[in-house]
């Protein structure tokens, strides 16, 4: 257990030199990380795709438990990193970080987010047959994602949504995206190379019980733009309503009922 001020990575860890590390972010409710097994399975998959040594799952779970116990923060963010280790060593480094839930999330949930669409320039199905593009992999090579968030803020919005060529909707820099028309919820299909969000899977399971039908596919931006409501999903931000897209009001311009219902269902699942 180390103090956050204490350096823990070697300067030649490939996570730093080349962004060769897999990571996971989970939200901790009442001291328990939500869906830790699912996050660990995704971490193992990401590590394999990046070409890292196999993830030691039991060690990850043990370290997560120890870090949370030491942090004594019932509501927190837990991040796990599995890096390539020092250059040429073949010995991975495992890190667990516990941090605070970002402030202002509930404020943002109440007012709803403004999104801007940003082109990635990829053919929509390219990542399905180009594994070297690491579609659906959660690696620390997130500089493009962070640059997209910064671009969104520069344009006066809160976040971005990525588009493939043909204006096909993909995902946000750190979220999956959803929208609703009547009782049907739309969300991009995993075949588009987006991240298989743990929250996304939780919402798909919850949607049926709430009377929604979920359709996954390749949908154009205009479809999202003409929806009745939209929202994003992620472990830390949970279900976050979207009220504006590219400077235009989306739906009624206020957080919608599906976002509210699914947020309640997610919380219920998390604290049960
Ligand atoms: C690119 C991307 N898409 C989607 C998500 C949402 O995934 P999850 O619900 O597992 O947090 C994330 C989360 O970090 C992400 O980075």
Q: Give the structural class.
A: alpha+beta
Mean pLDDT: 97
Q: How many helix segments?
A: 8
Stretches where pLDDT falls below 50 for ≥5 residues? none
Determine the N-to-C terminus distance.
29 Å
The small molecules bound here are: pyridoxal-5'-phosphate
Succession of helices and strands: HEEHHEEHEHEEEEHEHEEEH
> Major sheet, described briefly?
9 strands, mixed
Number of strands: 13
Please tell me what the overall shape is. Answer: globular
The share of residues in helices is: 25-40%
Strand portion: 25-35%
- The Rg value, from CA coordinates, equals 19 Å
Helix and strand topology:
Blueprint lengths: L13 H5 L2 E9 L2 E2 L2 H15 L6 H15 L4 E8 L9 E7 L5 H7 L1 E7 L23 H12 L4 E6 L3 E2 L6 E6 L2 E5 L9 H12 L3 E5 L3 H5 L3 E6 L3 E8 L2 E2 L7 H15 L1
Parallel strand pairs: 5-6, 5-12, 9-10
Antiparallel strand pairs: 1-2, 1-3, 3-4, 6-7, 8-9, 8-11, 11-12, 12-13
Pyridoxal-5'-phosphate binds next to α6 and β11.
Q: How would you describe this protein?
A:
This protein has 272 residues and is an alpha+beta fold. It is 32% helix and 27% strand. The protein has helices at 14-18, 36-50, 57-71, 105-111, 143-154, 198-209, 221-225, 257-271, and strands at 21-29, 32-33, 76-83, 93-99, 113-119, 159-164, 168-169, 176-181, 184-188, 213-217, 229-234, 238-245, 248-249. The strands form two sheets. Strands 5, 6, 7, 8, 9, 10, 11, 12 and 13 form a nine-stranded mixed β-sheet that branches. A four-stranded antiparallel β-sheet has the order 2-1-3-4. It is globular. The two termini are 29 Å apart. The mean pLDDT is 97. The site of pyridoxal-5'-phosphate (PLP) has 14 residues, from α6 and β11.
């Amino acid at each position: 257990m180390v103090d956050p001020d204490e350096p823990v990575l070697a300067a030649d860890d490939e996570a730093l030199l080349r962004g060769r590390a897999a990571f996971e972010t989970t939200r901790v409710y009442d001291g328990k990380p939500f869906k830790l097994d699912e996050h660990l399975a995704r971490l193992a998959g990401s590590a394999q795709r990046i070409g890292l040594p196999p993830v030691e799952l039991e060690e990850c779970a043990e370290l997560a438990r120890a870090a949370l116990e030491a942090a004594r923060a019932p509501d927190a963010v837990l991040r796990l990193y599995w890096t390539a280790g020092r250059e040429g060593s073949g010995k991975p480094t495992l890190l667990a970080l516990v941090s605070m839930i970002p402030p202002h999330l509930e404020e943002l949930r109440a007012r709803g987010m403004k999104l801007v669409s940003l082109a990635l320039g990829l053919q929509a199905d390219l990542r399905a047959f180009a594994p070297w593009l690491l579609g659906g992999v959660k690696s620390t090579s997130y500089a493009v994602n962070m640059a997209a968030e910064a671009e969104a803020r520069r344009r006066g919005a809160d976040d971005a949504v990525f588009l493939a060529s043909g204006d096909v909707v993909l995902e946000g820099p750190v979220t999956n995206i959803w929208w609703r028309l009547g009782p049907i919820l739309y969300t991009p299909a995993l075949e588009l190379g987006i991240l298989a969000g743990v929250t996304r899977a939780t919402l798909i399971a919850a949607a049926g019980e709430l009377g929604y039908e979920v359709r996954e596919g390749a949908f154009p931006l205009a479809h999202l733009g003409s929806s009745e409501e939209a929202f994003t999903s992620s472990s830390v931000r949970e279900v976050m309503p979207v009220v504006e897209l590219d400077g235009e009001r989306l739906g009624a311009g206020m957080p919608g009922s599906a976002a509210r219902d699914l947020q309640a269902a997610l919380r219920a699942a998390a604290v049960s």
